[in-house]
Amino acid sequence: MVTPEVRQKNLLDRVNPQQDMTRLCALILEEARTLTGADGGTLYLCQGEGREQQLDFAIIRNSSLGIKMGDVSGRPLEYPAIPLYIDDQPNYQHMASYAALTGKLLNIADVYQQKDFDFSGTQKFDQRLGYHTQSVLTLPLLTRSGELVAVLQLLNATNEHGETIPFAPSLEPLVQTLAQLAAIAVQQQHIMQDQQALLITLSGEPNTTQLLLRILQEAQNITHADGGTLYLLRDQNGSARLDFTLMHNHSLGIALGGDSAPIQAPPIELYLADGTPNHHHVASYAALTKEVVSIDNAYTNTEFDFSGTKAFDQLKNYRTISLLALPLLNHAHEVIGVLQLVNAKDPHTGETVPFSADTAPLIRALARYAAIALNNQLLVEEHKNLLDAFIKAIATAIDAKSPHTSGHCQRVPLLTELIAQAACEDQSTFADFELDADGWYELQVAAWLHDCGKLATPNSVLDKSTKLHCLNDRIHHVESRFAALRQQVEADYWQAMAQEPTAEKVHQQQRQARLNQLADDLSFLQTANQGGEFMHQDHQARVRSIAQQQWYDHQGKLQPLLSADEVENLCIERGTLTQAERDIINDHMRVTIEMLESLPFPRKLRRVPEYAGGHHEKMDGSGFPRGLTREQMSIPARMMAIADIFEALTAQDRPYKAPMKISQALSILQRMRDNNHIDPDLYTLFLEQRVWETYAHKALAPEQLDVVDPAAYR
């Protein structure tokens, strides 16, 4: 004969390895039927919380009727769940719900003689299937902490002759022991399922703030905690502390931190002023020792300093009783934060109770999964911050490389984002254009790096603020030659006076005319040297005419007033660069594309080279470096082209030209639109959505904003 002890061991050996809830339920029911000789039985699983709890049919078996429902090999169950509460009142009418609510075992010899419960459903079942339900044994499956996980109901105990008899009272202790073991197995199965779901949930949350919120919410749900605080460990300048990151409390309606109002509370230092570990505070103790701390009553505990907690309670008219602090340890067993929960609530009565040991496995798993997921997010965030800082450092280096374009690499991202925002808000031409968080970041990175190739551009070209600028402005050399010419005029005057003193007035007039001409020519060359939007042909001819004048060098040899190189530079039609120098400048786009395409950008940033490398392309294909047409360019690349042009036109830090007013800049963009150099739809958006005005308020001088109605530029 098999003893109860052996039967229990055999049951444990069978249920512990079981990984499937349905098979576990079937195993529990079959073991109970074997133990009691029951012809049939049902196992209900408890689902829901509080007044929403109900008993779901999990497994139904009946040998006489050949019924096998609910198992993976059985027919699906279509019976409605049994609510534990109806109209907010306990449902004592059904035998299973009564056992669930009271925690009592019920042993009924004949249900047809029983008036305490509603067996109308049973009677309909019997009538429909030609069955006769007589004896019923019902008992709840409760965990060690008294939490209901299931209800077991057995029908029609049979003797060795197959006759229906009442369930023997002597079997009740054995069945209750079975129920306790089964409750533990079901609870463990629930924990495993919850852990799996929790891991999927946490690992799938890409937003750090939302991940933190989810961790705290899940912890409160698992432990039925009224409140909770999540701290993150910060270590700056060798000072480790726990910063308040999130604070929630259901009773007080508090939700602080994250996207809500900030937490106005000082951090908790891990070490005191004398360098000793701060073991006075529960959270710092958990962080330092890497231990879980559970306090049943904060007001009677003498191990920790709860003066701050008591002050909070007095201020908020609250009462902190139970408390649970868990360190968040990453894969390297390093503390990255602490999760602190307060006031566990009994899910049935709502009373504050100590934190249950039954929730320990799941809450520890949550802390472990949360720490790993959070650590991954923090690592990604740290890498992103490092990348952002590196990108901005490159942009700053480019701007610092040339004081004449300082701030360009910072203003282009601003203007690009303003254009993109207008496109996202547009409901007509760009109704289908949108950017998610990754898309915005990709555009920002591209905008910051759009001129990174200028790092390879020679300073002599990049810093060429005037036409004659090389390592210095060679206009000073020209000015020295004019000074020598003036001295030559003076010498010629005195020589003429010595030879023909009676013609002094004529000599003076000739001297003054020559000096005036030299002054006028020098002034003309100084103006031409500054560069501009366009240099007329007659001005270029005058430069060449002036160049034909001669002066005596230090060796007394006659030299042309301007060298061939100086003539070429002074005759530059637009700006300050020769064609050769402009080719060098333009080559920065080739270098930019090569640099960016050589970088192993992650998938979410794979379009950065295309965005950044297209801001000098034109819609008609006449741009550089690749000669792309409008159809070959993405919308963000076309946006960046407009941003780069408009910023350059209105920039205040270009010494070779005054900053343009908005009216002049829009006129140039309008011509570029008409010549099919910039995207016409984006130009219309830029104009109609007054992106130029928003940018002007953010980055330009007030006097530059001289347009009110942009109709003239449509």
TrEMBL record:
Pfam family, one: GAF
SMART domains per record: GAF, HDc
Name of this protein: GAF domain-containing protein
InterPro entries with a match to the protein in the record: GAF, GAF-like_dom_sf, HD/PDEase_dom, HD_GYP_dom
Source species, domain of life: Bacteria
Source species of the chain: Thiopseudomonas acetoxidans
UniProt domain HD-GYP: residue ranges: 489-702
Family matches, as CDD domains: HDc
